[in-house]
Amino acid sequence: DGGITQSPKYLFRKEGQNVTLSCEQNLNHDAMYWYRQDPGQGLRLIYYSQIVNDFQKGDIAEGYSVSREKKESFPLTVTSAQKNPTAFYLCASSTDRNVLTFGAGSRLTVL
Amino acid sequence: AQSVTQPDIHITVSEGASLELRCNYSYGATPYLFWYVQSPGQGLQLLLKYFSGDTLVQGIKGFEAEFKRSQSSFNLRKPSVHWSDAAEYFCAVMDSSYKLIFGSGTRLLVRP
Question: CA of A90: which chain B residue's CA is closest?
Fold first, then answer.
């Protein structure tokens, strides 16, 4: 079945560490997105990529980095510069820039 | 700037009762509007979308939504709620750069 796979589902990080969240899709979608979800705040866009080797900052990119070396993959690195990284992270993709398909999410907790 | 407002943080309804979740948007042109549903600890699933045409849109799981330009609203409705509908619901509008702007969500609780 086609879909988006995010891993790990749960991740714990010590302060000062970088962590990378994986997002892989087999939908042949061109565009991929990373969102952050905090209780009561909805989803906020971190980064997005519309084609391979190109990506743009979203509304809350500070403290995050991404790469898009392959169409199928769009990993997100949460760096030590992110002041409050504990959140639920959602990856999504789309083919026609209109309808997003979401992964199941990764929950990051800073200890 | 585009924005989406979901005025109800929580809504509780009895199983079998009707449901309406409110959504108001701010967007200058004809909006692309969406409703997504999220079960706890899961990703989002598309319920329905409005791009153009008939202002009453049918979605999955028996949901529908009505686009009212004069009220800048896109409210989600269901005539009879099932316990499995308990989840968080997000309204979203697509901006001019093809990015989704989400509301803060409405959590639906269903009483037996």
Answer: B43
